């Protein structure tokens, strides 16, 4: 096992075009399709980081902030921003892009907890997070702030 891994090693960017199989009868993205892509992105990010098989332990509250229309380019981006003994916290953001109208916008964000598994499918240690550049530190700090803000607002609404 490696003692450390960088945020940059975990960074994952995936793109899709919203096609009819992932759209509802209004021609907009099915929430389940977006959640599926987000979970895959979190899994890839945490596998790259831990160099292990991973499972999803939890997914934070998701707000769909705007529609994604048929034909839009959907970009799903994630990275590990915090670690525990066997777990990794991954922020995943979704953006929609309509190049013909020069439009882009964030459509969803969530925080995933992923757990690394050993060859016996038992939780196993993950590397410590290293953020050797200012850009990586900024991404980590931004994710920590966003998660804290979300937790605070969810607690206040209960």
Automatic annotation (TrEMBL):
One of its GO terms (molecular function) is long-chain fatty acyl-CoA hydrolase activity. GO terms for cellular component: cytosol. InterPro entries: Cytosol_ACT (IPR040170), HOTDOG_ACOT (IPR033120), HotDog_dom_sf (IPR029069), Thioestr_dom (IPR006683). Gene3D superfamilies: Hotdog Thioesterase. Keywords: Hydrolase. The keyword Membrane does not apply. Residues 134-145 have a biased composition (Basic and acidic residues). Transmembrane segments: none annotated. Residues 8-120 form the HotDog ACOT-type domain. One of its GO terms (biological process) is acyl-CoA metabolic process. CDD domains: BFIT_BACH (cd03442). It comes from the Archaea. Residues 123-158 are annotated as: Disordered. The keyword Electron transport does not apply. This is Acyl-CoA hydrolase. It comes from Haladaptatus paucihalophilus DX253.
